[in-house]
């Protein structure tokens, strides 16, 4: 399923969804958490991106596993090290994106009708910002290491 798209390796195609949607989730979630007057206008974007970004990261991870098994299973030397460095960021990125998506969804739910009160919403907002920073860090590391693995041959 995550191997090819129209005869091309899926990973270079699928990864673009993760590279675009994850930073968008980071930005919109932070805006939602820190600027309450924007919440009504951005709730739909936070909700959609909270679901789409982790799914895109998961698809990128799985397609990367397929690409490695199909074409780079025996890669050694410098290329093997670069692939391993890139691969090492996949699970932390997936976990942080899923965490950010989950907490962002809870924040949207909590801020609608002030369900958890101000202290609860403030804690969720702070957690959202922290998870957004972690997610941004890992999406940068994954993207940078992937680009270096491909372009610094």
From TrEMBL:
Coiled coil: none annotated. Keywords: Membrane, Transmembrane, Transmembrane helix. The chain crosses the membrane at residues 13-35, 42-61, 90-110, 122-141. This is DUF2231 domain-containing protein. It comes from Nonomuraea harbinensis. Residues 7-152 form the DUF2231 domain. InterPro entries: DUF2231_TM. It comes from the Bacteria. Pfam families: DUF2231.
